Amino acid sequence: MSGVACTSIDMLRRLVGFDTTSRESNLALIDFVRDWLEDHGVESQLVFDETGRKANLYATIGPLGVGGIMLSGHTDVVPVDDQDWHSEPFAVLAADGKLFGRGTADMKSFIAVILARLPELAARRLRTPIHLALSYDEEVGCRGVRRLIAALKERPVRPRLCIVGEPTSMQPVIGHKGKRSFHCRVRGFECHSALTHQGVNAVEAAAELVAQLKAMARRKRGQGPFDADYLPPYTTIHTGTISGGTALNIVPKECSFDFEYRLLPGDDPDGPIEELRAFAENRLLPEMRAVRPEASIEFAELSGYPGLATEPDAEITRLALALTGANRAGKVAFGSEAGLFQEAGIPTVVCGPGSIEQAHKPDEFIALDQILACEAFIGRLFDRAAA
User: Fold this and answer.
1) In the annotation, is 49 catalytic?
2) Fewer CB within 10 Å, N or C, the chain?
3) Is 1 within a domain?
4) pLDDT in tens, 225-240
């Protein structure tokens, strides 16, 4: 593989060809990237999950012992199950100035551009190192990158700045919402529906909790806090799934549901769950346990990540604006690993090719002009690193 020229589109074809749906291993792609780096004289470190089936990758191009700039991306993609694709999802189809395939927008194109330019970068004498960080399981709660961040904290020198290449149409982003998601399980007591006074209806208790979540969502929508740079400009609260009961003539014993909230940076991340717990403890459980003492309501956190709030005049913001030529940085509603890097003390922005409007959909695509814009962005960054 050493010495073989590779365009960004060639590299994207290779990366999309790996089925890295979050439920699958990403090791085939990671091994390919590790070998590609090694063939160009770049060593890398793998940080595995507890099963050994998935790994993060971290590599440094340029001088060691210097902070440098980290380019970060996740390798996993969302499922294609039950989606109406008009082409093979794990093969790139070029048509009408677009490249179709799972991960083209979210977010293998960013990684492909970096890897395609690697031979050029490795041959240059860099004054500022460029670090490459690839993660797993971003799509299921930013789980994998946490192990990578823990490994970075053990290093004597960490990256000084970070750019996460999520699809922003190559516009710098300095803010995104945080997220927390939960599973709630309600246990009641079943009996014949003609004798409802002897039972504890778990579905009705769950419905009251969902209604309380809706009331909280309305309050956030009406009272804020607000940030007009976000769409919508407030913290959102949402119930996504619910399941319970076995038959109409049986008072249901169990019901469970999943809910999430997406927080503006600075909004209290514990506020909504604490309010719902208090509602359960003070309003619902006394009535339920008056009938059956064993009745219960349990909450378990499924996933969560912090929001991103980078200052408009921060060094990383100024760098991203200079590299893109944009006049100002924006904010987005979707989340990323950027908040975790920022929380770890690495100033971070989000900036990458493609549109989030195309992510997670059937016939996902990236426009060719976005590939070109990313190539120009990376080229300017490499020039700065060599200056």
Assistant:
1) no
2) C
3) no
4) 999 999 999 999 999 9
